[in-house]
Amino acid sequence: MSPPRRSPSHCNIFVGSKDSSPCRRNGVFHQNERFRNNLVSLLVTCAVLFAGVKLADGSFIRNINKISETLDRALYSVLEELQGPDYTPINVSATYYASTRFNPEGMAILYNITNVFLDIVINKDVYPEGLIIVENNAIQLEPIKEQWETLFKHFGGLLAIIIILLLLALLFPLCGFFFCCCRCCGNCGAKPQPLDKKKDCCKKFILATFLIAVGTLLLFGVVCAFVTNTHLYEGTTNVVPSVKTSMGDVDTYLNATGTELSILLDTNFVEFQTTVFDVLNKSSTIVYDQLARYSNAVAMTEVTKIVEGLDDIKSNLTQMKNITNYLRNHASQLNDALRKVKNDLIHTLIECNDNPECSKLSSNVSNLDTNIDFNSLPDVSSEMKELENVIQDGYLAESVEKGQQSLQNIEEQISKTVSTSVGSVKGAINDAGKEIQTHVVEVTTALKDASRYMHKHADPILQDGDRYIHDFAPYMYYGGIGISCVLLSITFCIAIGLICGICGKKPDPYSEDCCNKGVGNQCLMCGVSIMFLSGIVLAIVTGALFIVGVFSQRLVCDPLRNYNDSKVINLFDDSFSLNDAVGLDVTLKQVLSDCHQNKSAYQVFRLQNKIDLDKVGNYLEDFDIQGALDDLQDHIDIPVDVEILSPDAKTKLQELADSNISNINFDRFTTVLDDNLTKVDLNYLIKQLDVVLDTVSRRMVPEEIKAKLQVSKLHLETYQEKLVVPMTQNAEKLIDIARNMEHNLKFGKGSFKEAIMELIDEVEKAEIYLQKNGTQLLSDIASNFTLAIKGQVVDYLDRVVENVGINIGQCGPLSNVLNAVLTATCDKILLPINGLWFVLFWSLLVFTTAIILSVKLASLYKKFEYSYAGESEYLYDAYADREIIPLASNGKANKKKKKNKRQEGRNTNFPPEREGEHGHREFPSGSNQENRYADMAPKQQWEDFPNGGPPQYQRAPTEYERPPPYYYPGNSEQH
User: Looking at the record, which segments are called Disordered (predicted)?
Assistant: First the structure.
């Protein structure tokens, strides 16, 4: 809220006060009095300060700033002048091709289940704690007798699986042999059963259901076996190219690391050396420039520029004078010419006044005249004369040049005194560079040796491996295909057996149905035979794959991926010294950990013995660079006692400042010459004359008028070309000169005189300052200069230490190479191996169940019903002479019960012959060609039946189609 205005009816309240009530007169009076006193004091203080500033010299503010300037500013100035080189970046762009991409193609679930099974059954640690002890890099085993319980607990799962596989390999052929013998003796389901028993239907349903589940497991195993075998073949054939690609990435990494080191220690050093040597060569110039800048002796340079520019000022003034005279003379000629043309045109246009165009042109002709008074332009003759008096004897220029030379003599003296010290500094830097070059050669050689060592030992192995893979991988693949086909054939037999057994009819000796239950029986028994025959082979293959997969997983893949908790890695580090082998004081665990963290090669491989970065940081003292710089500073110590500007030169400059040059009104030239030279544009008037001439040519106008108009037009064109255009060009040139003179003569100040007087004052103060403090100032500048040189050296050494220790050779590419190799071997080869043996193992376990279910179900599917040939004739032969023996009935209730039990799966047209109760019968085969036309009627052994007669038959519906007499023996169901 703004304070209220002061008025006789209001108090002068404080800003922000909420009390606006009127005050007593006494209070108002005292407050107003204090306010007026404070205001007067403030105005007096401002007036004193303003007067002090005005009464002092014109450089008051600048001198105050110079006085407060310290040596730190000089140091910053030196550092600005001595900025470090623009180093070439050390980051080398390299392309790596090793891929860690792995696509299990639908087998991820199998691989995960296999790994979970391994983790449950087999301990992740390769050996139990305390079994292996390392002493003096020698591996020692504890007595096994004392560790048998621990070993049994640790390797119990592994031994269990091996024992199971051995038992399976032994039992499959043995059990198969005994089963075959049993079948040959007519047992174990070999003898067919003609009729279903009481609960056979339920048994078939339950057994078929379980066998379907078992077959599904086998089918899943078949799919997994084919896919894992394909994965194994692809992984095996691609492992050598993948490893070669990874080795190529290792070479790329080593080359990139060597290039980065070369850039840092060679290219960057040359850039650093060139920059520092260039600074040292210009040391005298740099120190002198700092001396002149700090003492403000640079003002002498401005004085020199002014004096050297006096000749140009004189030349410009002379040119301005000449152009002014030219314009004045030609303006007079142009004025006379325009008057004559004006009079001629006026008389001519009066004669054709009846023409509208002539009347229109008359108004423009009346204004035809010059528009500028060139006599009003300033005359610079007196200023030229004054300038000539100052510079004609050349004394001013000579004095200024002499003062400038006295300053340059300081630079020459500095150059002479520091030449020896500069050579010492260069020599020390060269010695440090040679030492750095030695490290470059050592490291580069070591990297090349590492690449050669890798190829020397790896290339033969890869070549042999590639040859073996090329020769034997197809056989391995076809072997896997064969094993998969065995599983497929077993699964196929079980599937066909189930389909035929479930959907087919019971076997009939007189029918030719190819998909009856008997076919299901035969397919199931075929599958059982294949399982017995292939069991030992599958068990042996499973055991071999199991041993290879498990030991490779636990000894190689798991340790390299879980190196922090791996006993294998710890055992390797404890028993094998990489320092003795390759000269690197590192451990495998530490290398893997640091490399996966993308640390530099210096950190990963502990290269302190190769490049001691602490020693590199001490190069400043080790190669006496610091001493050489101190000596350089000591030599920059010369007396500074100079006379920059003589008194006579100062007098001449004073005369120049007091001359009328600064009083020339340059704006007048611009103001006068900006207007057009004529009041009417001659080109426009010429065009109007053309229009008038065109008009009068079409009318009855005397030729004399036409001729006069034509002559006037010709005169105007001549004046425009010969007078107006040159005068306009000279006027523009004069304006440009005047503007440039006005700007340049001020030298960035308010006026020419102010600029000269300020420069004289600055030169005098610089001279006094150099005479009093020049020597100390030079010493301080020399100290700052050497500090700047030292800073560049330290910056480069810090750059070396930082990049070698952190940035160069970052191990990310090697980490990717290791992961790519593990992917090519552990993921693309070992995972399929483990998946394949796991599939075979569970298939073998499923075989035992499948064999039992198949045998039981096959015996049920083997049961059949039969009829004998001639039955249809018998049924329709109403008058044949046959003996009909009625069978006794056992009661209606008993008949219904037996009918309900036997109705499923039975054709009531066939006799319910029971072999156990009625003795052995010869069953004819429907497919035997010899018995095809034999008598199919059963032998009449009536004494074996309880009722003394043959079994009763249910008559077919067709029996009632023949003429009577009809035969009805009663219900055909019997106990």
Answer: 891-975
Residues 845 and 884 in one domain: no
> Among 833, 835, 826, which residue's Cα sits nearest to residue 100?
826
What does the alpha-carbon distance between residue 844 and residue 539 come to, in Å, rounded to a whole number? 7
Kindly state whether residue 737 falls inside one of the protein's structural domains.
yes
> Maximum Cα–Cα distance for the chain, whole Å?
177
Q: Are 378 and 737 in contact (CB under 8 A)?
A: no
The answer on 370 and 326 residing in a single domain is yes
Are 151 and 215 within one domain?
yes
DSSP state of 750: S
Beta-ladder partners of 37: none
Rg, C-alpha atoms of the chain: 61
848 shares a domain with 885: no
- For residue 154, the tally of other CB atoms under 10 A from its CB is 19
Verify that 838 and 767 share a domain, yes or no: no
Q: How far apart are CA 544 and CA 540, in angstroms?
A: 6
φ, ψ of residue 134 to 5 degrees: the values are -110, 120
pLDDT per residue over 118-142, tens digit each?
Answer: 989 888 887 777 677 776 667 766 6
pLDDT tens digits for range 503-552 = 877 766 665 566 777 788 889 889 999 999 999 999 999 999 999 999 99
pLDDT at 513: 62
Is 432 among the domain residues?
Answer: no
pTM of the model: 0.62
DSSP state of 374: G
Give domain status of residue 14, yes or no. no
Angstrom distance (rounded) from CA 158 to CA 320: 112
Cβ-proximal residues to 591 (8 Å cutoff; 6+ apart), any chain: 604, 605
Please compute the mean of the pLDDT values over residues 718-733 and round it to a whole number: 86
pLDDT for residue 538: 94
Distance (Å, rounded) from C-alpha 253 to C-alpha 248? Answer: 9
* Per-position b or e across 727-746, b if 16+ CB within 10 A of its CB: beebbeebbebbeebbeebe
User: Do residues 316 and 382 both lie within one domain?
Assistant: yes
Burial of 944 per CB tally in 10 Å (0-12, 13-18, 19+) = exposed
The label of the residue with tokens 């196929």 reads 492
State which of 719, 747, 773 marks the end of a domain. 773
Compute the C-alpha angle 404/405/408, nearest 5°. 95
Say how far apart CA 414 and CA 411 lie, in whole Å: 5
Do 851 and 882 lie in a common domain? no
The structural domain count of the chain equals 4
Phi and psi torsions of 534, nearest 5° = -90, -5
Q: What is the Cβ-side half-sphere exposure of residue 596, based on CA atoms within 13 angstroms?
A: 13
Residue 360 lies in a domain: yes
User: What angle, 0 to 180 degrees and rounded to 10, lies between the N-to-C axes of helices 682-697 and 703-719?
Assistant: 160
Query: Is the separation of the CB atoms in 277 and 426 below 8 Å?
Result: yes
**pLDDT tens per residue across span 16-36:** 333 433 333 344 334 445 445
Give yes or no for residue 559 having a pLDDT over 80.
yes
Band of the pLDDT at 871, cuts 50, 70, 90?
very low
* Res. 952: pLDDT tops 70: no
| SS3 labels along 268-318 | HHHHHHHHHHHHHHCHHHHHHHHHHHHHCCCHHHHHHHHHHCHHHHHHHHH
Angle at alpha carbon of residue 812, lines to 808 and 815, rounded to 5°: 135
Q: Residue 975 has which token pair?
A: 């106990």
Instruction: Retrieve residue 210's tokens.
Output: 């379980």
* Residue environment code for 261-275, b if the CB has 16+ CB neighbours within 10 A, otherwise e: bbbbbbebbebbbeb
| Model confidence at 921: pLDDT above 50 | no
CA distances for 897 relative to 146, 202, 890, 892, 893, angstroms:
72, 18, 11, 9, 6
Domain that holds residue 761: 296-396+648-773
Q: Domain ends where: 739, 773, 807? A: 773
Together in a domain, 510 and 542 = yes
